[in-house]
Amino acid sequence: MKKILGFLFLFCGLNACTTTDEDSYTQKTIQLNVIDYIKVYTQNNFMVGDKLYIESLFSKLQDEPGFSNKLDIFKTTNSRQFNFYFNLEKRVFNGNWTSINLNPSDFEAGGLGAVAYNTAICELNPNNTQYEFYKGIILQEAGQYRLTIQPIISNFYGGNSTVNVEMFTTIENLTDVVYEFNVN
């Protein structure tokens, strides 16, 4: 009986220490620091019906610290889409901010890339050279607004790779990640 229990403990112990490729899956992340990969087209005042444009254009070939060759983020991640998040808020009657749930219909037709609620999706262009996003949010009501952008661009849904690329960026025309503006 002691031998059976000994073998059982040994078997369970070895089984717990052994893993398969699925169990040991870890995703490597490459982090890059970049400048002005997101741009907000600011202006002093907007009118109802105007558009607030957001843009992101960047090459699929990126400088990677410590390496002489450029990093091909498409080959590395196998992702045709990269994304970043943003949030549009409006000041309400009591002075608090409330988030606006954006739908595709809140954006102008056309442009580059795609939008999924508050996610800007930069798509690899037909020439397979750069990722592109350029859309205008239609400003439909008067009031005071605040746009907040998360300054991290990463491959959308992780692609089909075990490598993720995150690009930490500054935002052109903003000194911070927040832009407040009025619509008349």
Automatic annotation (TrEMBL):
Superkingdom to which the source organism belongs: Bacteria
Name by which UniProt lists this protein: Lipoprotein
